[in-house]
Amino acid sequence: MEPLSWTGALAPLITPLWIAAGALVALAILRFVVSLLIVPAQSVALPDGTLTAGSGPLELIDRAVRWALGSVLALLALFLIGGVILDLSAGIIGGMARRLLPVWIALVATLALSYTFRRRLGLYGKLFDSTIGTVGFALVMFWVFAAFFGAMDLIATFDPLAQSGAMKNEPPGTPFDKMIGDVDEGAYPVYLLGGDNLGRDVFSRMVSGAWVVVQIAPLATAFAFMVGITLGLPAAYFGGKFDTILTFLANLILAFPVILLFYLLVTPEIIETGIPTYMSAVIFLFPILFLTILLNARYHTRPALRTGLLVAVILGLGWIYLSLISEPFGVLPVLPEALDLFDIPGGILTVFVSVVFVNAPTVFRIVRGLALDIKTRDYVAAAQTRGEGPWYIMLWEILPNARGPLIVDFCLRVGYTTILLGTLGFFGLGLPPESPDWGSTINDGRRLLAIYPHPALAPAIALLTLVLGLNLLADGLREESLRD
Amino acid sequence: MAGFILRRFGIMILTALCLTFVVFFLTNLAPNLEKLAKTQGNARMTDAEVTSWLANRGYDQNIFVKYGEWLGVVPGYVIEQPDGTYRGRCFDQAEAIPDDAPRFCGVVQGDWGYSSVFRDEVLGIIGLRLGLTGKLMFWVMMVMVPSALILGVLAGMREGSRLDRGLSSISIVTTATPEYVSGVILITVFASSAVGLKWFKGTATSAMENATFENFFLPVITIALYGMGYIARMTRASMAEVMQQQYIRTAILKGVPFRQVVLKHALRNALIAPFTVIMLQFPWLLNGVVIVETLFNYKGFGWTLVQAASNNDIELLLGVSVVSVFVVLITQLISDIGYVYLNPRIRVS
């Protein structure tokens, strides 16, 4: 079998695409230059009282830009739809479009449903009023769906760890071949994005790498927020010595160069001493603490309900907590093995803890700043006069009113956590060496970057698009929440 | 003002002491010391041999004593060896304690220790590597700061315009591209021998002696791009805020040309916030430096950090952390003082 080309049967569409893209760039530059010389045409008032846009050279160029943009997008959509229909006869792009079919279906369904009911969905619905926010949301959801369906084994074409001696560093579109023996019946015929230096399929590794990120990044960020909120609110509300000490500690961690901290925390020797496990024992306590205080502050006037809720939360989360920190041969074997629900590999736990540890002080500072501002509002004074307790005021008066900036920061921070995870992988810290996560894959690929760029390029672009999506999403959310 | 600087200076020293102690503690944990003994002495030492090897070199003392010795406020250890000779922190190994050996030898006295990886004095290594990184950082700043400020001012002067949206999208893209991603993409496009344009070199090793446009452009632009987007967005926000002020509106209504309004009225006030942001970028740039120096094999400060950390070279690692912590803290101090100095509305009493 011949190696696949990128576009296969859709090759005739490439020339129009280049023409349209070139025209778009040229027209955009022209628009910018002309706008420095000519003022836009005045709108014309019609006799019936409405306005109509005036027409001048500038408006003419604007229209041309819009047409060029439209045709570029239409051509790209043609590639995608053609690829889904033609599969491998539309080349590598066709093959990838077909493999990602579940993602396209889920993405279109989510976007269509959300757009239809956007007026009833609060801030989430308003996101679809901003183009930037919608684009960001689509990018993020693309990777989330890819990760989920990838974990369900619907997308990856090969096992991400399976090696083939014949496929080492082969370029994208090379037909699959094994060094010894025949190719199995029903195996996917090509390595869509080529093979890496051990002959593993780059496309499958990229998809399974997404699952690593989608599992760790939002969860680690959520933990950092729990820690930051639980400490930041009382620091701002009570002030005094408590605030001074916590702020000093937060600044201490922030002054630490992140990479140095990772190198000190995420080494086998340190994991051996158990320091990360002790740190996780402290950090994982915060969600339980947070929920307990939250519910107690709300329902302490209804003891029956309160006690029920608290018992459920503490028992349920407590069990998960104990299974998390206790490991058969770890430093904290508190739970007998029969009751241990799951074990997290030491490396992953350490990575998780250090990412939370790096993020929490920044969240603390943000929460503290917001709470200091909100503390002076009238509704807080009203609650104090009513005789509400300090925790009720913090968690049910101040926190809900700080949610806008916190949600925006959450999106940005998930992106930042993704970058941090990549950095850890890039230095080969924490995660197992053959882990398919994007940072490790870039690290593997960078040694032969000048000769075989494709193994590093695929995860690099994946990471770029996910973080870009999160940034755009945050931007859209900020824009829409400011409009209120 | 003097009191403010003094107080900030005190906090800075305290922070530096705490942070170096943390590094000291983590590098002196038992498994790390065992690894050190086995790499320095013999890989097949028994546990008893490891213990005596460490004891003979003063590693078994109390952590605070060791930290004090390293700092130079506690007299260096002198230990009699099994063979009757003496080994001390301030002299190597001798038959008897030399008369001219100083009692204290730590960071305060200028004795930063000996690197076990490079087999050289730590102070000399750090000086050399810091010089190389300084060269890199100088060019990063020369590229990053002007382009970020121009991007931000152009985007912020007419908020919501098409130009603003275009430039803002560019800065979002650059902030979303960490160095290891942009480095890979730039090397592929501009330096790869397979598909690339071959304009530049994919490694910067030769730039250490002789930096040219060809071998130095890619590392510089890789660091600059990531920081640029952030500074540009801050500048844009600050510029947009200034452009809504009353005095700008007055100037425009008075008939001052728009160019004059931007350059003479708005610019100075709009640049206060970005100044602090640029200063606070240093800790992040340090991250970028480590990644880029590893990626492009440029043997500067960041590369040294990676070497020291991955080989558990305790004294070099401590030296590196002292320098990086001070860089971070001093830039914070400068940004605070600069902010007060630039903004006439803030007066520290």
TrEMBL record, chain A:
Subcellular location: Cell membrane
PROSITE patterns noted in UniProt: ABC_TM1
Single biological process term from Gene Ontology: transmembrane transport
GO CC annotations, alphabetized: plasma membrane
Membrane-topology descriptor: Multi-pass membrane protein
Any one Pfam family match given in the protein's UniProt record, by short name: BPD_transp_1
Annotated InterPro entries: BP-dependent_transpt_permease, MetI-like, MetI-like_sf
Domain spans labelled ABC transmembrane type-1: 210-474
Domain of life from the UniProt record: Bacteria
UniProt keywords, alphabetically: Cell membrane, Membrane, Transmembrane, Transmembrane helix, Transport
Residue spans crossing the bilayer: 17-39, 67-94, 100-118, 130-151, 210-233, 245-266, 278-297, 304-324, 344-367, 410-431, 451-474
Principal localisation: membrane
Family classification: Belongs to the binding-protein-dependent transport system permease family.
Name listed for the protein in its UniProt record: ABC transporter permease
Organism: Palleronia caenipelagi
From TrEMBL, chain B:
Chain ranges passing through the membrane: 9-30, 136-157, 178-196, 216-233, 271-296, 316-342
Record flagged with keyword Cell wall biogenesis/degradation: no
Domain of life: Bacteria
UniProt record similarity statement: Belongs to the binding-protein-dependent transport system permease family.
GO cellular component labels: plasma membrane
Protein name: ABC transporter permease
Major subcellular location class: membrane
Species per Swiss-Prot/TrEMBL record: Palleronia caenipelagi
Cellular localisation: Cell membrane
Matching InterPro entries: MetI-like, MetI-like_sf
GO molecular-function terms, A-Z: dipeptide transmembrane transporter activity
Entry keywords, A to Z: Cell membrane, Membrane, Transmembrane, Transmembrane helix, Transport
Topology with respect to the bilayer: Multi-pass membrane protein
Chain ranges of the ABC transmembrane type-1 domain: 130-335
